[in-house]
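seq as requested:
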Amino acid sequence: MSTVMLRCAASMGVLASTLLTNPALAQDTAKAPAAAEQSPFGEIVVTAQRRSERSLDVPIAITTLSDKTLDDAGVRQLSDMAKVVPALRFDKSGVYTQPTIRGVGTAIATSGGGPNVATYVDGFFLPSAAATDFQLLKVQSIQVLKGPQGTLFGRNTTGGAILVTTADPSETPGGEMRVSYGRFDTAEVQAYATGGLANGVALDVEGLYRRGDGFQTNIIDGNDQIGKYNRWSVRTGLKVEVSPDVSAVLRYTHSQSDDPSAVMHNAFVDGDGTRWIYQYTPTGYYATKPNEVALQPGDGIGARTNTDVLQGTIKADLGFANLTSYTQLRDERVKSVQDLDATALPIFTIGIGSNSKTFTQELLLNSKAGSRLQWTTGVYYFRNRDSWPTEAKLGTAPFVKNGESGTLSQAIAVFGDATYEITPQLFVTAGARYSHDWVDQAFFERALTASVYEDANGNAVPFPADVPLYTRFYVPKLTNDRVTPRFVIRFKPSDASSLYASFTQGYKAGLLNVGGYSYRQVKPETINAYEVGYKYARNGITAELSGFYYDYKNLQVSSFQAGTARITNAASSEIYGIEGQVSARVTSDFTVSAGAAWTHARYKKFPNAPYYQFCDPTAAYGTTPTACVPTSLGGLGPGALVETTTNASGFRMQRTPEFTGNIAASYGIDLAEGRLNLSSNLYYTSSFYFGIAEQFRQKGYALLGLRAEWTDASEKYSVAVFGENVTDHRYRSAVNYTSLGIGSVWAAPATYGVTLGVKY
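struct tokens:
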């Protein structure tokens, strides 16, 4: 870690020295490509094209959420945004978060894997799926960009990008504290303070602590705190105005969590009453109700994360353009223990670790505003080394080492994007990104639970009998080169409206499936996206409408057998749809907004889709994939699940509801020498499938959130009462599917509480 940290500091120092000694620096202070914010004219300013522009002028479908919108909707952590952003979902694979936009997402959590929807915080990419869903701290705004963003945001943005912007340290002293308490003994303390240390030097510090008992009860021993959790984080930043032209921000963040909720699952029961677990599990050894689990006490089921992040941002005005440097070092450690059979029988428990060290460096150059040609260009470097040690518990035996896998993934990229004003009403945009990716130093170990490995052609090969357990097998290097272009034409009928048509391309980097004991290379995903859209903003009304078509090829599809992930390029798909959103300030006291998305997502060609079914005890083992695995070979015999294949061509894509939408309202009134704000948000999703071959259906559901907040006349003190899922709808937030059992992870029931706040 120290070597990379020194490299990080050195690169920042060299850049700062260069900037400080360059006589060509202009007089104007370099401005941050800031958060989405309200202009003096009520226009929303965004950074979707890596420069500050009116949202109206950006030819991308964007949902922009201010800090007030987030508070009103009860958005406490990133995954809560699904309630207010049409066509966005957050699902889980254990502790690993899976964002999906318009049907484009991934279920892959393994060595070298990554998301299809990139998350950026203050310009810094979050590479780990374990870090994607985080508690929001001093957030100013969130922008959700829909569709491939490969030109400006990189290789793994085939679904879109989420841009989170937080407050910079300020020399003006200020701070705030919030204390909340709610159902299930949930308590939260959040505090922030900022101020000047000297002329041109500012510091801020923020902290968060959250704990709760969880809502699950273990039916084996009656423990109603089996889901008990706690999370805490601290974040500090130092901002230095080096000169009128140069500023620098250095940030450090540490966060920890002990939260078993993502791995607390019970038996999945489908609409006809079928329990997708070992069929001969005795009554009392499995749970099906949303608030119950069945776990053997002492198995240690849970999940812990530990993250350290160091980030440095340098901004400089070069006269002809603005330069920004983003330097990041991340160290993330995860340990989860899961009962994969979804019963209390002593069958199989697995512990999965993930250790990830990431270094990123980006240099971004933006043109000055005011000319007919606006452009952005930059270079990017990414380096991630990860390792995934596992341990297993078979039957009543203690945990033993199961093996390990790991990769070193690297990428370099150069990119450019420019918009030219042909006439005051007509604009064209063109851009491209060249990416060079490679994965090497990849390995897997002969594991306790794996009798075979996969060769480069996808054939199952037994491990040699004379090779000891935990012997490392090294996989040859994987290299990819890709150019992702972007073309847009935009017509501006008036200052209040805009029409656009675009073609963009994105790709998700290839990987080595070492977590699946495989030599076979997994090809990159590619997506060609076509979109038309209309935007309007005037007199307190904003509206967007877009239609899109995606040609999606070489999907990286995963399936799981007894904790082993198999990843293949097995599918192509077709996605098209329509979405729209509108907001209106009806009066100075009353605002309403609504959004909806219809998405048609189907696999075009998927002849060998993973499919789970109960084994056939009459089939001879070794002659058909539906045969039961004998107990002498580690199987459960008759009554157990097996993974086979089916032709899923024409099937609905997983985790993609056809319809999602939300309606929100906010009303303020003067009350008791202060201001009372009443807000509500109603979210609806139609049914969808967690599994690939139209398996493990979640029916449609609606979620209603309510909030009332009173603030005194000085705006220093506030008290709020809130309720989430107030109609107490029970629905699954994730499904863990393996050949050992299909487990349901349930979302929380109705929650409510009170929050006290103070500002100075």
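The radius of gyration is 26 Å.
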